[in-house]
Amino acid sequence: MAPTTCPLPPGPRTCNDGDNSEPSFGETLRHLRKRHAGKQIALVAEGLPCTDAAISHWEGGFRLPSPRLFMIVLEILIRLGATEEDSEHLRAAWEQARGGGRKIAAPTKRGEKRIRFRSAPPISSG
Questions:
Q1: 121 or 8, which is more confident
Q2: d(CA 76, CA 93)
Q3: Rounded to an integer, what distance in angstroms lies between the CA atom of residue 51 and that of residue 44?
Q4: What residue spans of 1-126 are helical by DSSP H?
Q5: Domains of the chain: residue spans and CATH
Q6: Residue 30 binned pLDDT confidence (cut-offs 50, 70, 90)
Q7: Residue 115's CB: how many other CB atoms inside 10 A?
Q8: pLDDT surpasses 70 at 73
């Protein structure tokens, strides 16, 4: 398996800082937002239907966006120049933060939104 490139810049927190952990959703979102949108309010101005305070909570790791808001964030970042690799890193971090129970597909070029669910484990009787 080839190593993946971390979307975060080198610094005090990198993808491999000794504990082999990936950056958190909030860290990844903050980096991509700063690189492509600048201030938090820029995402709101681009059409994200939430407050800059909500974005602060996401970036701080206090909350996660809903699947619908996450898809809008992805679409805005892609429109502002985020790469496919950037969106995959953000999606993986979001799914990891949610416990990995819900998978979502990337926005398509026509802006269609698709949500895929993992199948539920079989229910045992007895």
A1: 8
A2: 17
A3: 7
A4: 25-36, 40-45, 52-60, 67-79, 84-97
A5: 25-99 (1.10.260)
A6: very high
A7: 12
A8: yes
